[in-house]
Specification:
Length: 222
C-alpha cells in the first residue's frame, strides 16, 4: 500500500504496530508500508563486539556526537555507494524523520574525524524500543563504532528492544538475529509498555571506555 501525506503522529502509530515506510528509490515520490514476515533485531543483552573493534573503540579514532546534524546523517545514509548503489530514502523520508527528530522521537549517533562527519546512523525512539533505520560510513569502521555507541546508550537509557528491521550479515556479526513477526510483536508490545530515555553522552572521561563498560555484560571476545 502506497502512502502520501504522512505526519509524524501517523508514523509513530505505525511503528507501534510494527510497520515502517520505505521508498522504492531515492527519486520515487511515494512511500509504501513494510511489515516483514521475518524481523531483524539486535538483542542488547547479547551485543557482540570483536576484539579488533574494541581496540578501535578504545583508541578513540572518532569523536562521537549525538543529534548535532541529524538531517545530514539521514542524507549521508541516502548516498549511493559501490556496495549500495540504490537507496530507499527519498525526500519524503528525510522530511518525516527530521520532523520526528524535532519532537524528540528520532536520534542520530555521529562519527566525526578532524571536524568532518565520516559516518553515523539514525533511528526512531518509542517507549523502550529503538528502531534502527540506516547507517553510513565514509571512513573505515566509522559506522561500526557508531553502532557500538548506540547500543551502549540504549542499554544505559533503559531500552529493551533494538529493531534492525532486516537481518544482514553485517548485523549478524554484532549478534543480530531474525525472529518471526509474531514474536517481534510480543517483544515490541513489552518494550512499548516501558519508558526509556536516550542519553546524549555516557559517564566517564573516555567515551570509548564508557561505551564498552556499558556493554561489558553482553559483549564476547572473538
Amino acid at each position: 500500500m502506497f502512502s502520501l501525506g504522512l505526519t509524524p503522529e501517523i508514523l509513530l502509530a505505525a511503528y507501534a504496530e510494527g510497520i515502517f515506510p520505505m521508498a522504492e528509490t531515492g527519486d520515487a515520490p511515494e512511500l509504501y508500508w513494510v511489515n516483514p514476515f521475518r524481523r531483524g533485531i539486535l538483542p542488547l543483552d547479547r551485543f557482540h563486539v570483536s576484539r579488533r573493534l574494541r581496540r578501535v573503540v578504545r583508541q578513540g579514532h572518532f569523536e562521537i556526537r549525538c543529534d548535532s546534524v541529524f538531517e545530514e546523517v539521514v542524507r549521508g545514509c541516502a548516498e549511493s555507494t559501490e556496495k549500495r548503489p540504490n537507496t530507499w530514502i527519498n525526500e519524503e523520508i528525510v522530511r518525516l524523520y527530521v520532523a520526528l527528530h524535532r519532537r524528540g522521537a528520532a536520534h542520530a549517533v555521529e562519527a566525526w574525524r578532524e571536524g568532518r562527519l565520516v559516518g553515523g546512523l539514525y533511528g526512531v525512539s518509542l517507549g523502550a524500543a529503538f528502531f534502527g533505520e540506516s547507517m553510513f560510513s565514509r571512513a573505515s569502521d566509522a559506522s561500526k563504532v557508531a553502532l557500538v555507541h548506540l547500543a551502549a546508550r540504549l542499554k544505559e537509557g533503559g531500552y529493551r528492544l533494538l529493531d534492525t528491521q532486516f537481518l544482514t550479515p553485517h548485523l549478524a556479526r554484532f549478534g543480530g538475529i531474525e525472529i518471526s513477526r509474531a514474536r517481534y510483536r510480543r517483544l515490541l508490545a513489552q518494550a512499548l509498555s516501558y519508558r526509556a530515555a536516550f542519553p546524549s553522552s555516557l559517564p566517564g572521561e573516555s567515551p570509548g571506555e564508557a561505551a564498552l563498560a556499558a556493554l561489558q555484560e553482553s559483549t564476547e571476545t572473538s
